[in-house]
Each structure stands twice: as structure tokens, then as C-alpha cells.
ABC transporter ATP-binding protein (Schaalia naturae), 312 residues
Amino acid sequence: MALAVEHITRTFGGRTAVDDASFTIVPGRLTGFVGGNGAGKTTTMRIILGVLAADGGQITWQGRPLDPAARRGFGYMPEERGLYPKMPLLEQLVYFARLHGLSRTRAARNAEELVEALGLTERAKDPIEKLSLGNQQRAQIAVALVHEPTALVLDEPFSGLDPLAVDTIVTVLSERAARGIPILLSSHQLDVVERLCDDLVIISRGRIRARGGIDELRARHSGRRYHIDAGTDMGWLRGVPGVVVTELSGDRAIFETDAEATAQRVLRESLDRGPVHAFTPEVPRLAEIFRDVVADTAAPDTDPARTEEHAA
Ligand SMILES: Nc1ncnc2c1ncn2[C@@H]1O[C@H](COP(=O)(O)OP(=O)(O)OP(=O)(O)O)[C@@H](O)[C@H]1O
């Protein structure tokens, strides 16, 4: 059931927007797609959705090239939101579900469930244009989900939402992932991606810089930084070969080591000297991993025209 991006390349007027990108979106897992402005996320997603052609490479679904019939089963949220402004919310959801071939009963049931799950019950009869921007965003998510999609591709589903709205959508998406469909979502909100996603794809200047499970990436980027909280003064740590003490305050210290074995030696020696209340390897936040991974590639990938457009 996996959805795979295989060696996708796309140029615009000689400028490469996506360069030999490959990654897999695994069923039942939420994959976060992160990258700076103009990194190539939307272009990649458009290619997956078939609204833009690739110059090279292919998208596969369940091991075979993705065809239009299979693609119609997908749910998506494009960067340019496209709903009918005058049509009432609930009616619009039923309409889209019917368009995908669902029976009237099932379409109505799905639409009502989503309206409730997304906290839109009181807005159900309002035309889209009367909804606040945050509610329009929720409505867009509902449209992506109403036909029971086989896969989900969401471009910036959280942009412009307050933290409560983000939580509501996170709950709905996690529930969909638990049903076993692959979900790809792009976001600039690394804290949300960190909380929500299982897998991560980092893109910069059109190239995939890292991909894999978030826990696995964290472990890979963890370095060897430890926090120790002991019962005796830790001043002696400064003299240990292979250790660089970055912070020291009485019986607490933060230090880096040249090897895991050195950290273990520090722990043993600390225990010889007295009690140790905590000994914890530092786990990097996603923002740090992101900075690490794109550090050497970040600066020129921003197109000023688009940056302004996004800032507006
Ligand atoms: N239709 C187009 N014509 C010309 N250049 C384009 C077009 N679409 C995208 N690009 C260029 O391709 C590059 C990648 O853009 P893309 O929209 O995929 O990035 P993104 O990661 O989605 O960025 P953002 O986070 O700002 O939305 C940019 O340099 C952009 O200017």
C-alpha cells in the first residue's frame, strides 16, 4: 500500500525545483515533509497528485506506476485552496463525496461525522465564504477526507491555524493514519510535525537531505551530549579525558563525550563518588536536526518573489 516517490526531477526554465527526489510514504504512518520556502515541497506534491508532470522519475502506488484511476482515490489539500464559496459547508462535503461515487447515505454520514469531529457543527449550513479562514481550512481538510481516501497528500494543512484548531486536525489525521492509509503533509511548523509525524522527509534546494523515522533521525543526530544530576560536586568532570563540560553547577553538569564508552565511564565514576539522581542523553529537537541537515544548503534556496508572496 506504500506510495513512493522515485527519482523525481522537475525544472522550471532551466532552474531545478526538484532534483532526483526519492522517498516512501508508508501506510499507517504520518510522514512530515519539511523544507524552507521554495525548497520543492509543493512541486513534489503536485507531481504526486498529477497536476504537474515530472521531467524524470515516477510515482508508484502499491509497487506499480500510479495511474489516474488510483489517484482519484486520494484525498488532497492543495496549496491554493479550491472550494465553492457560495455552497454551504455540509452540502459541499456531500457533493464531493458523491462525486467520488459514494452512496447518498454514506456521503451524508461521512460529511456529518467530519463536521462534528472538526468542530464545525454550528457552521454546517453556512456558505464557505462566510466561514473564518481557520474554519475554511478545517472545511478543506474535511473535503480531503470525506470520500474515505486511500492516501492523503496535504500541503500546509496547519498554516494559519490556532493551536486548538491544530490539535483538532491532528486528532482527525492520527485517526485516519491508524486506519492504515499513507499520509504526507508539508508544514513549516516543526513543533507540530515533531508531535504528529512518525516519519520525516527533509528537502532543501530540491534535494532530499534526510528521510526516515523521527526517532531514528533523532538518534542519528543526537551527538553525545548528556545531563547528569549527582549527589556530589561534579567539578572533577573537567579533568576527564574525552569529555567537554558545557555547563557545570555544583552537582549538575551537561557534557559532551568523544564516545559512548566515555559517557559510561563518567557514570561509573560518578556512582563511585556518591548517588546519581539522573543521567540522560540529550535528544535533539526536530528544529535542531533540521538546522543540522540544511545548514550547508539553506541560504540560496529562497526566491525573493515567492518569499514575499508567502509572507503576505
Ligand atoms: N510554476 C512555476 N514556475 C516557475 N517556477 C516555479 C513554479 N512552481 C515552483 N517554482 C519554483 O520551484 C522552486 C520550488 O518551489 P515549491 O513551491 O515547490 O517550494 P515549497 O517548498 O513548496 O515552498 P514554500 O514552502 O515556500 O511553499 C522555487 O524556486 C519556485 O520558485
About this structure: The pocket of adenosine-5'-triphosphate is lined by residues 12, 17, 35, 37-43, 303, 306, 310 (CB under 6 Å).
